[in-house]
Design a protein that fits this description.
Blueprint: E1 3-7, E2 10-13, E3 18-25, E4 33-39, E5 46-51, E6 59-61, E7 69-74, E8 79-84, E9 93-100, E10 111-112, E11 116-121
Parallel strand pairs: 2-11
Antiparallel strand pairs: 1-3, 3-8, 4-5, 4-9, 5-6, 7-8, 9-10, 9-11
């Protein structure tokens, strides 16, 4: 049974930083592409960024977070991270971790976590 468990969310002031973690189990982590998504109140879920498992661990980010957010992974710990800097109130959302078996980042994801709340105050 695949499980993805996010942690690290919380309340932070605008301009601050947070690091989210997602611990994976029940899958071969090293051969899964990992993605981060978010959903703000009243809005659809949107892609934040992802990191492939091949091709030198390619990363790809949404324009809204490019240059502020960084995704990394530790295959030894079966964990993917989302480092969020220069946070803005519009980054407030529930953040979800997801995994997919292929190497492409911008495809449908197979597994999802339960999400962690990030709130950025102005």
């Amino acid at each position: 049974q695949v499980q993805l468990v996010e942690s690290g969310g919380g309340l932070v002031q605008a301009g601050g930083s947070l690091r989210l973690s997602c611990a994976a189990s029940g899958l071969t982590f090293s051969t899964h592409t990992m993605g981060w998504f978010r959903q703000a109140p009243g809005k659809e879920r949107e892609f934040v960024g992802g990191i492939s498992w091949s091709g030198g661990l390619n990363t790809f980010y949404a324009d809204s977070v490019k240059g502020r957010f960084t995704i990394s992974r530790d295959n030894a710990k079966n964990t993917v991270y989302l480092q969020m800097n220069s946070l803005k109130p519009e980054d407030t959302a529930v953040y979800y971790c997801a995994a997919r078996r292929g190497s492409a980042i911008d495809r449908v994801y197979d597994y999802w976590g339960q999400g962690t709340q990030v709130t950025v105050s102005s």
